[in-house]
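Q: Hi! First time doing this. I have a protein sequence and I read that you can turn it into a structure. Is that right? Here it is:
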Amino acid sequence: MSNYLDTINSPADLKRLPLDALEDLAQEIRDRILEVTSYAGGHLAPSLGVVELTIALHRVFNSPTDKLIWDVGHQSYAHKLLTGRREQFSTIRQAGGLSGFTRRDESEHDPFGAGHGSTSISAALGFATARDLRGGTESVVAIIGDGALTGGLALAGLNQAGHAGRDLLVVLNDNEMSIGRNTGALSAYLTSLRTAVEPHVRWARAETARFLSSWPLGDSVLDALDRFKDGLKHLVVPGMLFEELGFTYLGPIDGHDVRQTVEVLESARRLPGPVLVHTLTQKGRGYSPAEKDPRRFHGTAPFALDNGECEPTEGLTFSQAFGQALGELAAQDQRIVAVSAAMLDGTGLAEFKRNFPDRCFDVGMAEEHAVCYAAGLAAAGLRPVVAVYSTFMQRAYDQIMHDVALQNLPVTFCLDRAGLVGDDGPTHHGVFDLSLLRHIPGLTVMAPSGAEELRRMLATALALPGPAAIRYPRGLAPQEGPDELRADALGESGPAGDGALPLGRSRVVREGTDCALLAVGTRLQPAKEAADLLAKKEISCAVVDVRFIKPLDEELLERLARETGCLVTIEENALAGGYGAAVAEFLEDRGLHDTRLTRLGLADAFVEHGERGSLLAAAGLDAAGIARAAERGVRGEG
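A: Yes, that's right. Below is the predicted 3D structure, encoded as structure tokens:
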């Protein structure tokens, strides 16, 4: 049994291994990734798919001098194991441990941090430009997946890189195409032929141009030869799109053949100008359950190694509740359509896609396009619902503002994974959406405390004449009973009648005389628990399910401010510009200066990765933290 991995403390150690040992090393890396993710969870299938490619990259290039820039970064587990982080790998995605993505402050081998997609080519071009301006010679490599390549940012980067002509290598990790023996062999032959003759072809063309320059029709003859050459390439060489953008295209190659990948990368490293190497890989490679179901193992919870099964969970998640509610509403209204950006499963739309295949649109990793596309659908008379993770919707801010809200189009934004997501850390925490959306004119913003509330908010949003956003967290959705929902003025008619909510009306869960706890979304349950704790100290707290971040329930806020003199806002969002800030502005505008206001939320800092409950407790957003803050407010202690 080989034990190569334990001898590698840096990429330099990898280069000392014989080439024949690299396949064994790949298996050791896979075994280590599987061992750790089985108890820590993580992005398993993407990382298993690039093991050989990662080995080849570190075999050919000299990190950290050469810059390897991973797109998204969720496939960087093998990269971490080969760059001095082997001993810490067991801590990945745990509090105080390694990040599940690349981070500049974690290692010199991570020249550019990532977490969102489509950034690597633009960043790599920036590195290449800086290198050329200071006279450097290092190689710059962007590794990007075929999914991330659908993002407009990636295409914009390709466009400028091809035009600039700087030395830059883009490695396209294509894990959607299968590798057939004949196709692979032919592609490998074409690639080896082109890498071998490309320098000679460049030289021959230059010499031909010099010879023909003295001819009266020399330029015309040369143009004809170029057109003839390009025509042949269109017939026999794939990747002409990249060639037309100014890249030398090599591939496709088998990204699981270490020897071939090393050879092609060596050739690519010697070629001048922008080069794109197209590698074909398999998501989940080497682990049967992940190979069979790469979607489920893209980002997985802890699982049993022998069969890949996860611990079953009881109850309905917010994503599932959303999918079910949208399906029910869509069955009643043919205008309702769904739009997602490469996350149908993650946002709960898979069933909707099966039931309404012609009314569900996955636009790829292109959030900006998703929102503008939805604006077009709405302008044409449909009722689009855009389901995207909160952190990714940040990318489409201008489209929400300019294309949707400015035109008052009825687009509904459903922001999944809002709040603290836990193990994925600062790139994925959805803690800025309230701040980003609250100030946009005409946009209604809601946050449900449970599954039934989410259903009713969706009905409310789809009946409004303009845009709306609903934000909710990852995980199980509380199931409210009729008794819990009765005290919310249900007798009033909402905008759609049956099931919809009265616009801008919060729900008083319990009355109190000393303080009012104003809870946004799922902070309602810990607020109720905090009120129970305070009752033991003879402090009477009202508890409010805020529901609407915009418009505010101004009537209720004024009543509670006057009756209790103490308000506590509780939100899983940045304090800057969030719900608490809205309440502070309201109190100032109404001249309620004697009201004591405590705002609980997230401070002006990026929250690290860790277990969600621990992160909430550290931020003072659990029951104990809420109770402490409310008691201080009641006693006038700040």
